[in-house]
Specification:
By secondary structure, the chain is of the alpha/beta class. It is built from 7 helices and 7 strands, in the order βαβαβαβαβαβααβ. The chain has one domain: NAD(P)-binding Rossmann-like Domain (Rossmann fold, 3-Layer(aba) Sandwich), CATH 3.40.50.720.
Length: about 250
């Protein structure tokens, strides 16, 4: 039965891919979920409908372009009005594309830092009063490349490094009422083709760097999120979910 005491989670960029799986996993563990989207409204609505079929009034959709800061106040009001509470914020929405230093532009900087640092920071700021009411949690989706740079992706890596430090800084500042942690995925899903085109030899080279010799799954990320939300004495930590890739070196063929 749905009650007003069931916790509520907002996951940005959650109509597809990793965000979608996190929504489904938390919903299956009793959370009411707020699905945020920008251009994927149809996918978000389909997901919400499916979850509401399972449990009435347990899923809602909010839509906003996070790069446009004028949208933030209305988004925050809409989020809180969905279920009149918020227990968890997951900053998942992220742009990812190469920026070779010879051709990088201010527009690309705005996009990558806006989606990976600026929006997460100011959403966290705006939602802190609501999260504080329930000893809530913030989880940021970082990246193993926040510490190990990816060739031709300098701006993205810099932005994720900033998000990593933001996670640790907010964990100190918002304690003891809000816990703040991060998840650093390794190779979980290949990037969508419109973002980065990987040839088969590129994929093989990536797999060769992973001791587990395989991609992770969206479920691996969702289960890590669930673990963090169920661990009330963990804050300020970044958990790498990467099959050992961040250990460095290269495995034998």
């Amino acid at each position: 039965m749905l009650t007003s005491e069931q916790p509520v989670v907002l996951i940005t960029g959650s109509a597809k891919r990793l965000g979608r799986q996190m929504i489904q996993t938390l919903h299956s563990h009793g959370y009411r979920v707020i699905i945020h989207c920008n251009n994927s409204r149809a996918d978000a609505e389909e997901l919400a409908h499916s979850l509401n079929q399972q449990r009435e009034d347990s899923a809602a959709v909010v839509q906003a372009d996070l790069l446009n800061e004028t949208n933030w106040p209305a988004l925050v009001q809409q989020v809180i009005s969905c279920f009149n509470r918020l227990d968890v914020l997951v900053n998942n929405a992220s742009s990812f594309f190469p920026t070779p230093v010879a051709s990088a532009t201010p527009g690309q900087w705005h996009d990558l830092f806006g989606s990976n640092v600026k929006a997460p920071y100011f959403l966290s700021q705006a939602l802190t009063p609501e999260l504080s009411k329930r000893n809530g949690a913030i989880v940021n989706m970082v990246d193993i490349h926040a510490q190990q740079p990816l060739k031709q992706h300098s701006i993205y890596c810099m932005a994720k490094a900033a998000l990593l430090m933001m996670t640790k800084s907010l964990a100190r500042e918002l304690a003891p009422t809000i816990r703040v942690n991060g998840i650093a995925p390794g190779a979980i899903l290949w990037p969508p083709e419109q973002s980065v085109v990987l040839k088969e030899q590129d994929k093989a080279a990536i797999l060769a760097q992973i001791p587990m010799q395989q991609l992770g799954t969206p479920e691996d990320i969702a289960q890590t999120l669930l673990f963090l939300l169920q661990s009330p004495y963990i804050t300020g930590q970044i958990i790498a979910v990467d099959g050992g890739r961040s250990l460095g070196g290269q495995t034998k063929a």
